[in-house]
Amino acid sequence: MSARVVVIGGGLGGLAAAVVAAARGHRVTLLDKNPWLGGKAAVLNLPAPGGARGEASGAEGGNTRGFRFDMGPTILTMPRVLRRILAEAGRDPAAEVPLLRLDPQWRCFFEDGSRIDLMQDVGAMARAMEGFAPGNGAGYRRFQDVARELHGISEKFFFWKPVEGIADTLDFRANLRPDTLREVLALRWARRWPG
Questions:
Q1: Which residues of 27-38 are buried (b: 16+ CB within 10 A; e: fewer)?
Q2: Beta-bridge partner residues of 5
Q3: Helix (H), strand (E) at residue 164
């Protein structure tokens, strides 16, 4: 059954919701306060000195003179979500949004002139962290272990599940299964997070 859906906000989340709803056969209207779509994934175009006022525009927009600044996102951490949305809409993700893996993924600069790169390889990143902030390399590895565990639980229990109401989050039968309780209790929240 087709429904009329209004999505408020044309940022990445709003665009994703609109694409999925349309792909599922709904009539979608997308509203945004800005004259461009993409939210933080917009482009800021500024003219060369002495030119007209700059403006933000979608990824396709742009001026022919002046300066272009990508306003974000600076990194796409879960490209599989984007691929899934585009695939559901019957689009080829590789053709629609070609992605290029970067390593280092970004570089942080500090006032004192120091810098550190974020790298994909956990071992290389832990070594870089240890060199940048001695004593923190092992902590970075522990953080990655916890993050990996939390990510696995998220993927298993709720990340890909639709949530249309509170009842969708309260599956007592599934949540009280021994294997589920074992995974949740294995997180040992009180021992992992400073309080």
A1: ebebebeeebbb
A2: 28
A3: none
Total-model pTM:
0.64
Distance CA 35, CA 37 (A): 7
The rounded Cα 73 to chain-centroid distance in angstroms is 8
Identify whether the C-beta of residue 122 lies closer than 8 Å to the C-beta of residue 144: yes
76/7 Cα distance (integer angstroms) = 23
Cα–chain center distance at 142: 22
Which two structure tokens, joined as six digits, stand for 90? 């019957």
| pLDDT digit string, tens, across residues 146-188 | 888 888 877 776 677 776 666 666 667 776 778 777 776 766 5
- DSSP lists the bridge partners of residue 46 as 67
